[in-house]
Amino acid sequence: MVNLGYSLYLSTFAAQCSALRGQAGTGAPVFLSLHISEEFDASFCQRAEEACHALADMGFRIIADVSVKTVAQFGCADLTELAEKLRIWALRIDYGFSLSEIEAMAEKMPIVLNASTTTLKDARAIAARGKCVMAMHNFYPRPETGLDEEYLLETTKKLQEAGLKVLAFIPGDTQKRGPVFEGLPTLETHRKSLPSAAFADLALNYGIEEIFVGDPGLSRKERERIIRFCREGILSIPCEINDSWSHLYDQVFTCRIDSPKRLVRFQESRIYSCQGQAVVPENCLERTAGTLTVDNIHYGRYSGEIMLIRSNLPADHRVNVIGHVPENTRLLLDLIDRGSKFTLVRP
Q1: What whole-number distance in Å separates Cα of residue 318 and Cα of residue 130?
Q2: Bridge-partner residues for 235, per DSSP?
Q3: Which ranges of 36-98 would DSSP assign to H, the alpha helix?
Q4: Tens digit of pLDDT for each residue in 45-60?
C-alpha cells in the first residue's frame, strides 16, 4: 500500500497544519527539515519543538531531516536525545554521522537515508541492523535538475533489493515553495504535472512506497483523488467533456483487457454500443493524444463505444470527439493498465 505524505515548513506551519487537520489520527507521514538556513532565527528551536509536538499530538509520523549541526543546535547529546525531545518517529540522516553511528541509531528507531548519496554497501549494512530502514530521494527546486526516469528506476530498484523502503516527492498544485516557486518534484518530468498524476506514476511505474508532496500547497480535490487511488486503486482522470456527454463524469470504468497501447477501450461502453446506440456524427476531428471519443452511427453496431486515445490518430467520419484530457494530466493515460479501474473527473 502506498502512503501520501506531506512536507511541512516552519515558515508556513500554521496554515499547513490547519489544512491537514482532516488527516489527523491517520498516521500519515510528514517530512520536516530541521536545517533550512533561511528559517533560522533566535526562536527557531522553540518553534521547531512546538511544531513537532503539535504534529505528534495529531497522530502524524514525523520524519525529520537532520545533520550533525542539528544535534548541537538543539542542545542534545546525540540523535536519540534529539528524537525523544522532538517526538520524532524517524530521522532522515543528511551529513556528519559515521556509518557506525547510523547503524546504532537504526537499532533504536526508523532511519531514512539519502537515496542519492548512500552507497549500496552502506545501505545493506544499515538495513541489516535496523528494523525499519528507508531511503528518500531528494526534491529539486531548480527546473531541469530533477532526476531522469532511468536513474530513478535504477536506484530505487537497487535500494529495494538491499532491503530498504523507498520514498520520493511530487509537486503541489496551489502554494509553491520559494525562492524559485517552480515545484518540488523528484522527477523532472513531474514538475508541471498535477500531483495526483505524478503520485500514480511514482507508485505504478517506479514502485515508490511513500510519496510526499514537496510544496506547502495541495488542493483538496487533488488530495481526495490521491487518497482514493491509495484506498481503492482507482485512477481519477481529469477530462473536459462536452455537455451532452457529461453523464460520463464520476462513473467507474474498466479498461478492456484487450485494449491496445494506442487507446483505452471502455469495457462498460459495450452496454451503450450493444444496441448500436444512435450517435449522430459531429466533431469528427483529428484524434490527438488525450482525446475522448465515441463511435457514431456510421460504425454500425459499434455506435456508442467510448475510447481514450493515447497516440495521435487521424480524423474518422465514424468517430466523434467528445472531450480532452488536459496536458498536465496526460501521463495518467499510460497508467491505465488492462483490466484496471478509472473514472473521469472534472478538471
Answers
A1: 61
A2: 342
A3: 44-57, 68-73, 79-86
A4: 999 999 999 999 999 9
Cβ-based neighbours of 342, under 8 Å, separated by 6 or more: 234, 235, 236, 237, 252, 253, 254, 255, 264, 336
Closest CA to 141 of 252, 215, 211: 215
All structural domains of the chain with their residue ranges: 3-233, 238-345
For strands 252-254 and 341-345, give the pairing: antiparallel
CATH architecture of 238-345: Beta Barrel (2.40)
Distance CA 127, CA 119 (A): 12
* Res 15 pLDDT > 80: yes
Is-contact 152 187, C-beta < 8 A? yes
pTM over 0.85: yes
Asked if residue 186 lies in contact with residue 152, where contact means CB atoms within 8 angstroms, the answer is yes
- Residue 146's identity, in one-letter code, is G
Which fold is adopted by the domain 3-233?
A: TIM Barrel (3.20.20)
Nearest to 112 by CA among 168, 172, 52: 168
Contact 137, 167 (CB under 8 A): yes
Chain-centre distance for alpha carbon 281: 39
**Which three cell numbers, joined as nine digits, stand for 40?**
533560522
